[in-house]
Amino acid sequence: MTKMASLQPIRGTHDLLPDEMRAHRHVVGTARRIVELYGYEEIATPIFEFSQVFQRTLGEASDIVTKEMYSFADKGGDLITLRPENTAGVARCFISEGLAQQVPVRFFYAGPMFRHERPQKGRQRQFHQIGVELIGLAQPEADVEVIAAGVRVLDALGVLGKTVLEINTLGDHESRESYRQALVAYFGEHTAGLSEDSRTRLSRNPLRILDSKDEGDRRIVADAPLFADYLNPASVAFFDRVTAGLETLGIAFAPNPRLVRGLDYYSHTAFEFTTTALGAQGTVLAGGRYDGLIKMMGGSDTPGVGWAAGVERLAMLCGTAPAARRPVALVPVGAAAEAEAVKLAERLRASGLRVDLAYSGNLGRRMKRANRIAASASILIGDDELSRGAATVRNMDSGTQEEVALPSLEEFLAQYR
RNA sequence: GUGGCAUUAGCUCAGGUGGUUAGAGCACCAGAUUGUGGAUCUGGGGGUCGCCGGUUCAAGUCCGGUAUGCCACCCCA
Q1: CA-to-C1' distance for A1 and B20, Å?
Q2: What pLDDT score does A412 carry?
Q3: Per-residue pLDDT tens for A54-109?
Q4: Rounded Cα gap, residues A14 and A45, in angstroms
Q5: What are the φ/ψ torsions at residue A121 (nearest 5 degrees)?
Q6: Which residue is closest to B75 in terms of CA–C1' distance?
């Protein structure tokens, strides 16, 4: 590897410098604060798991498993995968930690995910997600709660108005299987007219064909069997209760019969908050119900519902990051004052102030620095002030300044905290 | 993984048909202003023109490859 090549970040990864990091913290912190009101507790699961955790749960034929996983053998020969999403990890955690005793559990998480995809705006190989999982409730009210929490998070971030909530039902396992068979039969008779992509989908995930953008596919899809005709009464009743619950809460939604999910573990409710403001990567928060997942992984038969949201996408939608907290600048003049300033800086920090102390430069340079870092006030200490046991405090917005006795500095500076 | 477009200073970008020491704005540094920042003016530092190779007397400019970004597809947060 050449020196230059090694200095590039790995494709699809990004450094988060302070401005962007603050934007991320705003998104994550806002979500954490909101979902806590619903009783969600934050947890963290490892960013890698045995590959089986993802292979078995996401579906052997899913795109994530077939081409997007970062997998490797570790030194012990175990097959390891960097998590491409976190629901499987949380489900594994639920089983490993014996949490079936405590249902229902409400979890919130935030952290990096990894998918080996071709990068684009809003799509990176290492990206960050926040998400919630509500495990152990089979009632449709749980779906409504989870969606409502998503709405509140988007609203608190000021982006709800830029999104549309699309919702659909995938039915229970029985409904889904009979519909799947009907689709395979129908599309099987029209393979000649299907796009190459859709012919592949026919064996892997025929529901995907419904969502195809190919014009020829769309003509065939227009006459395809409707999912509504294959939903059993229980599935219909479940979905009705979800939509009724949303209406009760005044949550606007757009039914989208063609909304499907790429991951095998979903059933019943599927939903996505989409936006047209981010180009092709329009999904900012999405999720659904995954009643079969935990049993499939070897746990007890435990239902679950949740969502995940992309931190980068939400941050982009939010626009500018919140400003950093403004510091006060300590500006000593002369050796005696510099020595005093080091001690004073510690004192002021102990009182909760953010304090910047430059270690070199004359008064003019230090004032320029204070200005550059957007200090709210500068505290000037020279021989004059020192002899009087005081400091000159300059308000950097108004330019006014006054002398303050050193012992009462904390009290005076409280307005800048 | 497929196709298209891009890559020149820290950032945003100029650089007809190849032709002497590659430019601008912003940012940065210094001075005007040696106890007072922001504005203005003056000056300054900073570029292996993504990388490798080819064509040519001569390549930032043309060709090939490669890396990365962006756009679309695929799929998803």
Answers
A1: 38
A2: 95
A3: 988 777 667 767 678 899 899 999 999 999 999 999 999 999 999 999 999 999 99
A4: 22
A5: -65, 130
A6: A63
Please name each of the domains of chain A with its CATH number.
3-172+232-318 (3.30.930.10), 328-416 (3.40.50.800)
What DSSP string describes A199-260?
HHHHHH-GGGGGG---HHHHHHHHTSPPGGGT--HHHHHHHHHHHHHHHHTT---EE-TT--
Tell me which nucleotides of strand B come within 7 A of a protein CB: 1-3, 28-30, 33-38, 48, 50-51, 67-77
Q: Which pLDDT tens digit goes with each residue over A264-309?
A: 778 899 999 999 888 778 899 999 999 989 998 999 999 999 999 9
Task: List the A405 CA – B36 C1' distance (angstroms).
Answer: 19
Of all nucleotides, the one whose C1′ comes closest to residue A283's CA is B77
Tokens for A121, please give them: 């705006």
Residue A6's pLDDT is: 57
* Number of CB atoms found within 10 A of residue A19's CB: 12
Report CA(A206)–C1'(B3) in Å, whole number.
25
pLDDT recorded at residue A56: 80
Question: Nearest residue to nucleotide B30 when comparing alpha carbons to its C1'?
Answer: A365
pLDDT in tens, A221-256: 888 888 888 899 999 999 999 999 999 999 999 999
**Three-state DSSP class for residue A108:** strand
Q: What is the residue type of A224?
A: A
Q: Which nucleotide minimizes the distance between its C1' and the CA of A372?
A: B37
Question: What nucleotide is nearest A59 when CA is compared to C1'?
Answer: B75
Distance A1 CA to B57 C1' (A): 36
- A42 in Cβ contact with A69 (< 8 Å): no
Closest CA to A246 of A170, A310, A150, A153: A150
Radius of gyration of chain A (CA): 28
Give A344 CA → B77 C1' in Å.
47
Q: How far is residue A295's CA from residue A302's CA, in Å, rounded to a whole number?
A: 7
Using CA atoms, how far apart are residues A304 and A268, in angstroms rounded to an integer? 11
pLDDT at A151 > cutoff 70: yes
- Note the CA–C1' distance, A369 to B11, in angstroms: 21
SS3 helix, strand, coil % of chain A, rounded to 5?
A: 45, 20, 35
ipTM: 0.87
The pLDDT score that the predictor gives to residue A3 is: 37
CA dist A328 → A401, A403, A410, A413 (Å): 14, 16, 12, 9
Q: Which pLDDT value is given to residue A110?
A: 97
